[in-house]
C-alpha cells in the first residue's frame, strides 16, 4: 500500500547468525501478492520445544486456534507462515484449510500433525485455498537451509515498510547460544494489511514449560506494551522455538524457570522481544514519530500500565504528537478517562526532561520554546507522575498522521 | 479552527419557544475569542429544580466539581457558561475562579451561592481570570430576556461548526409544557477546542430527585451512546432545569418518577437528548458521515453496548467508513477485541439491509456493488448480530477523516 519506507526504519540490520537446528525456506506462492515471497517455512530438528502467546480476541483466526491446540504437546517440527490472506473469519472453510496445511506440513517433515504450527496474515474474510500452500511444502522442507533469516522476515511482511529482525548471542553454562527473532506489523488488522506476527528461535536446550514461562513473562513489557491504533488483530501470534542443538556443544538443559543459568538468556530474550516490538511500532501505519510513555507514582503497576495505554491510545494525544505539540492538557484528559486512581492536583507531566505541568497546573518555569524544539524529534518521551503510589509502567506507540487515515481509508479494491 | 460547516449540519433549525421562568443573556467577554459571544447566563425563577450528569473523568475541571457540590441542594437560580477556556487543570487558581464567579453570580440574582451552576469549555491548563466573567454578571442578570435560545447555543460553541438546539411541546396533565435544549461538541477535548456541554430547561413542575432520575436514565441511550474519538473530556456536563412555571397554568407537580403523568414528558425529553447527542456526533471534528451501530443477540444489553462502543471507537472501522469501504473484517476485529462473549461462527453483519457476513463467513449473496453504493450515503447503519442472547444496544459515531488529524494535529499557537 504505502510505498515509502518509514522514516523510523533501522539505519542498518544486524547480520543474522545461524540457529543450529533451524532450517529456513521461502517461496513465491502467489497467495495474493505477485513478484515477492509470501510463504515461509521453518523446519526444526527433532526435540525442538515450543511456546506461544496469541491474540486475546474473542474471534481469533483459524490458524490461531490450530496453534493453541498443538501447543499442548510442547514439540515443534515445522512452522508455516503465509502473507496475503489471514484465513480469519473464513468459517468451516478456514478450519479445513488449517487441517489440510497441517497434514501436508507434517508429511513434508515426516512428523506428527501435532508438531505443526502456522500463521496467516493479510486479507480477512477471504477463503484461503489450502492448495496454494500445500503444494510447496515438501520441496521447501527439503531445500530449507540454515541461512535466510532476513529473507524469512521479508516473506511475512504485509503493509510493513521494512523487515524486522533481531539477534543475540548469550552465554549459557560454558557455551554461547543464539537467539534470533523476526516480526511483522504494521497496523493491527486490515484487508491487504497488518497483524502482528513474531517468531523467535534459539539453539538453547529449554523445556517447553520453561520456554512458555519465559515468553509469557517477556511479553508483558514488550509486545503487550506497544500499540499502534488500539485495534487488536484476530491473528496476533508470537511463538518461540528452542531446538536444544547447543546441548551437543555442552549447553545445560534447562527444566526449571528459576534456574540461575537462565538469567542472561532471559535478559537477552527480553531485549530481543523489546527490539522487535519497537520495530513494529516504528513501522506503524503512517508513523513519523515514536512515543515512549512512562507512568510513575501510580497505585500499582497494573494501574500504571492501564493509564499509560489510555494515553498511548488517545487519538488526541497521538495527533498532538504528530503536530509536534506538547499538549499536556490532552495527557491529563487521557489520565482522567482511564478510570484508574489519580489525583488531579498531584499530577506532574514531562516531555523529555522538560516538566510542563505539576501540582495540578502548568509549570511556571515551562518554556514553550524549549518544548517546541524537543517535540521536533523523532523519538518523544512522555512521563506522567501520579504522585499517589509506587506503580510504574512504560509503553510505546507512534503518532497518528493523515497517512494513517489514507492507508486505512482507501477503498478495498 | 475549521471554517467550513459540517456537511451533516441540520438543514433547518426549529423555532425555539420561550420556557417560562427562564431568562437568557449572552455577552462578548473576550475570554479568548474576539468578535463573537462567549459568555452565557440563564437566570431561573425561584423554585427552579436542577439535575446534572457529569464526566466520569478522574481529573474533572473545576466547574464540574463546583456543580457537583451544589447539585445536592437541588435548586438553581443562575447558570453561567463561558467558551474559550475550560478552567481545567488550573489547580488552586481554577478553584478560586469558580468561587469568585459563584459569588458574583449569586449576588447578581440575589440568591444563595449554592444555587449557582457553571460550565467552562475551551483551552485546558490556562488560568481563567474570574474578572473576565464576574464584571458582566450583574448587567446580564438584569438584561436577560425569555428569548434567545439560539443565541445561547451560539455563545457556548468552540470548534462546533453549527449551533445545536432542540425543542418539544408535550402534554402534562391538562396543559402543554415546553422542553428546550442546547448543546455543543465537537471532539472531546483540546486547547481551543471541544468538550460536550448541554443544558435543557422546562417549565414543568418536577421535583429535583425526579428530574435527576429522568436525566440519568435518559443519558444512557443518548449522550452516553455517542462517541467521536473515544476521548473523554474533563468537563463534560449535561444539566437540566425545571422552573415549575407551568404549575401556574395548572400543570401537576411531579414528585414521583413513577407518576404516569410523566410518560409523555419522558419520551419527549429522551427524544431531545437524542437529537442533541446526534447533532454533536454529526459535528464531530472532521466528520463527513454518521455511523449508527446496532448490536443485537448479545449476552446482555450491557455487553451489547460495550461491543457497539468497541466498534464505534475503532480507528480502523472509522477510517473504513470514511473510505466508503464496507470492511466487515474490521468489524469482526472490533467485536473480538471488546472482550465480551461472542462466537465467531455465529456472527452476522449488515450494512443497511445488506447482509455481508453470516455464520462466520462472507455472505455468498453479498453484492460488492450494492454495498459500495450504500456506503456512499451520509448516514451509515451497521448491524451486528451475535446470535448468542437477547441483549441489544445502539450507539452513534462519525467517521475518522484526514480533517480530524488536521484539526487536532495543528500546532497549538
UniProtKB/TrEMBL annotation, chains A, B:
Binding residues annotated for substrate, in chain numbering: 158, 184, 195, 285, 408, 413
Pfam families attached to this UniProt entry: ArgJ
Organism: Nitratireductor kimnyeongensis
PANTHER family: ARGININE BIOSYNTHESIS BIFUNCTIONAL PROTEIN ARGJ, ARGININE BIOSYNTHESIS BIFUNCTIONAL PROTEIN ARGJ, MITOCHONDRIAL
Record keywords, A-Z: Acyltransferase, Amino-acid biosynthesis, Arginine biosynthesis, Autocatalytic cleavage, Cytoplasm, Multifunctional enzyme, Transferase
Known role: Catalyzes two activities which are involved in the cyclic version of arginine biosynthesis: the synthesis of N-acetylglutamate from glutamate and acetyl-CoA as the acetyl donor, and of ornithine by transacetylation between N(2)-acetylornithine and glutamate.
HAMAP family from the UniProt entry: ArgJ (MF_01106)
Recorded family membership: Belongs to the ArgJ family.
Record localization: Cytoplasm
Catalytic activities: L-glutamate + acetyl-CoA = N-acetyl-L-glutamate + CoA + H(+); N(2)-acetyl-L-ornithine + L-glutamate = N-acetyl-L-glutamate + L-ornithine
Active site: 195 (nucleophile)
Marked site: Involved in the stabilization of negative charge on the oxyanion by the formation of the oxyanion hole: 121-122
Any one Gene Ontology molecular-function term assigned to this protein's record: L-glutamate N-acetyltransferase activity, acting on acetyl-L-ornithine as donor
E.C. numbers: 2.3.1.35, 2.3.1.1
Lineage: Bacteria, Pseudomonadati, Pseudomonadota, Alphaproteobacteria, Hyphomicrobiales
Name assigned to this protein: Arginine biosynthesis bifunctional protein ArgJ
Gene from which this protein is expressed: argJ
Biological or metabolic pathway of the protein: Amino-acid biosynthesis; L-arginine biosynthesis; N(2)-acetyl-L-ornithine from L-glutamate: step 1/4; Amino-acid biosynthesis; L-arginine biosynthesis; L-ornithine and N-acetyl-L-glutamate from L-glutamate and N(2)-acetyl-L-ornithine (cyclic): step 1/1
InterPro entries: Arg_biosynth_ArgJ, ArgJ-like_dom_sf, ArgJ_beta_C
Main location: cytoplasm
Domain of life of the organism encoding this protein: Bacteria
Cleavage, annotated site positions: 194-195
Subunit structure as annotated in this protein's UniProt entry: Heterotetramer of two alpha and two beta chains.
Amino acid at each position: 500500500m504505502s510505498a515509502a519506507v518509514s522514516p523510523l526504519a533501522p539505519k542498518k540490520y544486524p547480520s543474522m547468525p545461524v540457529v543450529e537446528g533451524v532450517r529456513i525456506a521461502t517461496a513465491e506462492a502467489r497467495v495474493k501478492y505477485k513478484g515477492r515471497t509470501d510463504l515461509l517455512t521453518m523446519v526444526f530438528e527433532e526435540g525442538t520445544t515450543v511456546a506461544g502467546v496469541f491474540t486475546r480476541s474473542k474471534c481469533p483466526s483459524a490458524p490461531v486456534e490450530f496453534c493453541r491446540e498443538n501447543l499442548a504437546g510442547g514439540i515443534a517440527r515445522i512452522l508455516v507462515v503465509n502473507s496475503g490472506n489471514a484465513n480469519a473469519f473464513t468459517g468451516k472453510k478456514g478450519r479445513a484449510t488449517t487441517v489440510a496445511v497441517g497434514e501436508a506440513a507434517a508429511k513434508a517433515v515426516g512428523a506428527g500433525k501435532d508438531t505443526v504450527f502456522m500463521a496467516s496474515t493479510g486479507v480477512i474474510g477471504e477463503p484461503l485455498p489450502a492448495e496454494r500452500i500445500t503444494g510447496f511444502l515438501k520441496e521447501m522442507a527439503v531445500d530449507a537451509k540454515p541461512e535466510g533469516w532476513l529473507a524469512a522476515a521479508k516473506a511475512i511482511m504485509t503493509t510493513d515498510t521494512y523487515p524486522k529482525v533481531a539477534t543475540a548471542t548469550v552465554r549459557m553454562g560454558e557455551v554461547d547460544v543464539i537467539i534470533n527473532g523476526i516480526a511483522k506489523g504494521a497496523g493491527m488488522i486490515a484487508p491487504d494489511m497488518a497483524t502482528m506476527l513474531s517468531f523467535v528461535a534459539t539453539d538453547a536446550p529449554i523445556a517447553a514449560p520453561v520456554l512458555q514461562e519465559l515468553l509469557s513473562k517477556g511479553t508483558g513489557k514488550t509486545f503487550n506494551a506497544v500499540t499502534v491504533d488500539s485495534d487488536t488483530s484476530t491473528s496476533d501470534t508470537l511463538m518461540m522455538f528452542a531446538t536444544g542443538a547447543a546441548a551437543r556443544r555442552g549447553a545445560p538443559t534447562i527444566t526449571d524457570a528459576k534456574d540461575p543459568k537462565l538469567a542472561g538468556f532471559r535478559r537477552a530474550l527480553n531485549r530481543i522481544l523489546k527490539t522487535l516490538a519497537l520495530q513494529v511500532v516504528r513501522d506503524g501505519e503512517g508513523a513519523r514519530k515514536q512515543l515512549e510513555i512512562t507512568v510513575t507514582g501510580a497505585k500499582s503497576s497494573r494501574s500504571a500500565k492501564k493509564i499509560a495505554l489510555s494515553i498511548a491510545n488517545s487519538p488526541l494525544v497521538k495527533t498532538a504528537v504528530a503536530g509536534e505539540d506538547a499538549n499536556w492538557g490532552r495527557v491529563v484528559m487521557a489520565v482522567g478517562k482511564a478510570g484508574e486512581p489519580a489525583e488531579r492536583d498531584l499530577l506532574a507531566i514531562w516531555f523529555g526532561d522538560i516538566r510542563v505541568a505539576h501540582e495540578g497546573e502548568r509549570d511556571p518555569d515551562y518554556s514553550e520554546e524549549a518544548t517546541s524544539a524537543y517535540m521536533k524529534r523523532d523519538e518523544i518521551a512522555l512521563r506522567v507522575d501520579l504522585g499517589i503510589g509506587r506503580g510504574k509502567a512504560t509503553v510505546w506507540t507512534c503518532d497518528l498522521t493523515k497517512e494513517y487515515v489514507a492507508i486505512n481509508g482507501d477503498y478495498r479494491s
